[in-house]
What we know:
This protein has a single domain (3-79, 110-128), classed as Rieske Iron-sulfur Protein (3-layer Sandwich), CATH 2.102.10.10. The protein is mainly beta and 130 residues long. A hairpin with a 2-residue loop joins strand 5 and strand 6. The longest helix has 14 residues, at 92-105. It has a 4-stranded antiparallel sheet, with no helix packed on it. It has a 4-stranded antiparallel sheet with strand order 5-6-7-8, with no helix packed on it. The protein is 11% helix and 38% strand. It has 1 helix and 11 strands. The protein binds FE2/S2 (inorganic) cluster (FES).
Amino acid sequence: MSFVEVARIDEVPEGSMKHVEEGDAEILLAKVDGKIYAVGDRCGHMNARLSMGKLQGTTVICPLHASQFDVTTGKNVKEPVLTSIPGAEKVPELKKYSERLEKIIAPVKTYDLPTFNVKVEGETILVNIK
Ligand code: FES
């Protein structure tokens, strides 16, 4: 496959993330220490859009259940946090629903993210879509 243009360099400031799409690929671009990284922008747990989460150093934190991934490798570095619905313990029906939801989510596996090779030519970020 070949490299395709996905963004301008000024669209990804230091310490930020950007969601881009190319064909069927949803890609998270992140700039850390002056380098651009590209990984899949769907969480390896339950598909939340990671670029809506937080970037701390080279770690992106999922906005849904807080799984963490290293944007330099795509590796899952911390499992999701599955907590009860706030206030559920006060409402019996909600407590029952919350407990059932936790049982359903608990066995869901978290997978590493796909990674993409990146190059910058002038002001343009290019990604190798596999
Ligand atoms: S969807 Fe990302 S941690 Fe659950």
